[in-house]
Every structure is written in structure tokens, then in C-alpha cells.
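I would like you to sit down with the pair of lines that follows and say whether C-alpha cells and residues agree.
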Amino acid sequence: MERYLIFFVLALVAEILGTVSGFGSSILFVPIASLFFNFKTVLGITAVFHVFSNLSKIALFRKGIRLDIAIKLGIPAVIFVILGAIITKYLPVQQIELGMNIILVFLALFLIFKSDRPLKPSNSNLYFGGVTSGFIAGIAGTGGAIWGITLAAFQLPKDVFIATSALIDLGVDLSRAVVYINNGYFTSKHLVYIPFLIGISILGSYLGKLILQKTSERTFRYIILIVILITAAFQLYKYIYSGKS
């Protein structure tokens, strides 16, 4: 019981920080959940959790949605997240988890050192960002950082950034959740988590919104990226160490 309490507390922290950063909580939630569950279960729980998480953000920031951007980035993301999610059934779990942590390390390093150099705000970058983030989200469980980079090019106000990102994320998570559930990554024994995940998504999004009103999200992004970097590096170390033993 204590183990799951720690998991839910960490999930709440991930949701708060994900809301503040605008990247979404999956980039922090996935490595945290990997400490408690096998990786394919993590994929299933993350997708289901983020359906509720994104609905909460849309409700709280709904006035800021940029539908034109969400469609251009979201449609390719949904198509390729389905493809990535299907592929996970045929890939070895350890290799997927290893790849996810390598991706997180490079993404965190890129965002830390290149955050002041956004992409050009073009339709081609929206389409490419959707394809890339969707495919990685389907395979590794998190793609929010990539469409975060893409959306940053448009210099959107933070409320607009979060609302638009949440709408894109909702389409992505609904799509991959269907595939993951069909693959058995989220089963009836996991249904007990749903009331807690709903509560965490609402509370975390609300607390994140309150923090955003008083704090610079730039500072929090750096804090989160450092936490992600440390968590993913620890997982890589654990993978390498277990391979030697």
C-alpha cells in the first residue's frame, strides 16, 4: 500500500510540474511509473491517465485553444501514435524502455541548452513535429516535449500554449489508449487506479494553474528537465548495471 501511495504522490507532482512547464506530465510521469510497473503497463497507465489529465487542462484553459495549430500538428500526431503503439506489440520490452530513456536524456539536454532557439513557426514544422512526437509517444510513452518544441516556435502565451498542447495530447492519448488496452497493457486489474488518476489529474492541473499565475514557467521548465535528466540517467544506469550482473 505504501508503494502505491508513493506512486500517486509522485504522479501528482508530475501532473503539477507538467502543467506548469507546458510539456505535459508524461515526460516526467513515464520514468516515474517505470520505477513501479513493467514498461508496457506504464504505457497503458500513462495513456489512460493522460486522457483525464488533458480533459482537466482543456477545462481549465479552454479559452486559449488555437484550433488551427492543434489540427495541423494533432492529425499527423494521432496517425503516427497509432502506428507507434501497434509496433510496441512486436518490440522487446527492455529495448523499448532503453530507447525511451535515451530519448528522454537527449530531449532534456536539447531543451536545456537550446531552449532559446525555437524552430521556425511554419506549417511544415507543425506537420513534422506531429509525425515525430506521435510516433515517439506511441513507442516510448511520451512525445509532449517534441510538440512543446514545435509550439514554442509560435511564441504562444502560456495559457494558449497549455490549452492547445492539451487538445493535441488528448487526441494522441485517446488513440494510443485504445491500442494499448487492446494489446493488454491496461487490464481490468488496473481499473482500481482510475479514481485516483482522475483526482490527481484534476488537482494537479488546478494547482499547476495557480502556480503559473505567480511564477515564471521558464524556471520550472529547467527544474523539470533536470529531474527528467537525472531520472532517465538513473534508469539507464540500472539497465546497464543489470546487464552486467
